[in-house]
Design a protein that fits this description.
The chain has about 250 residues and is mainly alpha-helical. Helix content is about 75%, strand content about 0%. It contains 9 helices and no strands.
Length: about 250
């Protein structure tokens, strides 16, 4: 069995993984376009992320080496750990909204199935690609990808509601600028970029937590839950990328 570990900077994803990644991005973008059955496109993302690993597990595809297989298993463990924690928190936090009329009728939780599915996919991708490419290059590519998807989201938001959503769109553009800046800084100064990403993530979380406290007087359950879910995503993205860079070795840089 080949156990040789290649340098992070020389690693290239196999063609099947790039094809799967392209399908996943296409599915994510199509799921944002309103129309009949538009939400079903997001299934392509799950197929793209978990399709190749499934084919490798049943022997249809071969792993590049033992190292690749080990980081895939570790990424799967990370994804299961995060989703398991959120499922547990659903039960723990439910009393906070149990008295709300909509919560009792709709039986909603802080983290619905759709959100858990997205978290599972995102956690797996973050963990696998950062391990596969190494922190500086992995974070660089992931942040640029997230910035591109966020930009597309902002454009679609403006096309649907160009006036009402202008402040939100401007805030999203600010996030994109920070994300791109952190991406390029991660290649040259990974430690500094790690601290920056953690600081930015913490600032976003504090700001959204303050906004959430202001929403407690309103009876809009969906908005409150959306804020909580956004906070979790911010912690996941900025926390994972920031800590990965702080733990990275300077020798991993190109």
């Amino acid at each position: 069995m080949n156990t040789t570990v290649m340098n992070h900077s020389s690693r290239r994803l196999p063609s099947i993984d790039w094809i799967a990644l392209g399908l996943g991005v296409a599915g994510l973008m199509l799921s944002r376009i309103p129309g009949p059955g538009w939400g079903s496109w997001v299934g392509l993302l799950g197929l793209a992320v978990f399709g190749p690993p499934l084919l490798r597990e049943i022997g249809v595809l071969e792993d590049e080496d033992e190292y690749t297989r080990n980081i895939r298993w570790r990424a799967g463990f990370h994804a299961a750990l995060v989703v398991g924690l959120l499922v547990f928190l659903n039960k723990v936090l439910y009393p906070l909204i149990a008295s709300h009329p909509e919560a009792m009728v709709r039986k909603v939780g802080f983290f619905p199935i759709d959100f858990l599915r997205q978290t599972l996919v995102l956690t797996f991708l973050l963990s696998f690609l950062i391990q596969y490419w190494g922190a500086p290059k992995g974070v660089f590519r992931l942040l640029l990808g997230l910035a591109g998807l966020t930009l597309a989201e902002a454009i679609m938001l403006m096309l649907r509601q160009p006036v009402d959503k202008m402040p939100i769109a401007l805030a999203i553009m600010g996030i994109i600028v920070i994300t791109v800046g952190g991406a390029f800084l991660s290649r040259k100064k990974p430690k500094l970029s790690g601290y920056l990403l953690l600081a930015v993530g913490l600032a976003f979380v504090v700001d959204m937590a303050h906004t959430y406290s202001l929403l407690l007087s309103r009876n809009d359950l969906d908005m409150r839950l959306g804020m909580i879910q956004t906070i979790v995503m911010m912690i996941l993205v900025f926390g994972t990328t920031g800590i990965s860079l702080l733990k990275s070795d300077e020798q991993e840089k190109d």
